[in-house]
Amino acid sequence: MEIEAQKNQIVLKKVYNTIVLETREGKRLYVCMRDMGFEMKVDDGNWHLITNESDFLVKPKEQFGGSDNKNFGDTAPRLKEVRE
């Protein structure tokens, strides 16, 4: 593993083991580097392959069980706007 500091960022290269980021509340984000992208999961959820930026786009709210966005509060509509 190589570690660099660049413009207030920590850059990890050649990482072949899972990296875990944990909040004070114990929520965990797991990241694994792969040849074709990254695999990520939150807590005990499923692993998801991330190969490009479009993999991060918010899915239509109908896919999350309703039109009221109850799973995301009022942040879901803004997520895509922030990324554009």
Q: What are the key terms here?
A:
84 residues; mainly beta; four-stranded antiparallel β-sheet; two-stranded antiparallel ribbon; 1 helix; 6 strands; globular
How would you explain this protein's 3D organization?
The chain has 1 helix and 6 strands, in the order E-E-E-E-E-E-H. 0% of the residues are buried. The longest helix has 8 residues, at 76-83. It has one helix spanning 76-83; strands at 2-6, 9-13, 19-22, 28-34, 37-42, 48-50. The chain folds into 2 domains: 1-51, no CATH class; 53-84, no CATH class. The model is unreliable at 66-84 (pLDDT under 50). Strand 3 and strand 4 form a beta hairpin. It is mostly beta strands.
TL;DR?
The chain is mainly β and 84 residues long.
The secondary-structure element order is EEEEEEH
Shape: globular
Number of structural units classed as domains: 2
Ends: how far apart?
Answer: 32 Å
Quaternary state reads single chain
Q: Give the neighbour order of strands across the main sheet.
A: 3-4-5-6
Q: Calculate the mean pLDDT score and round it.
A: 75
| Overall strand count | 6
Gyration radius from CA atoms, angstroms = 16 Å
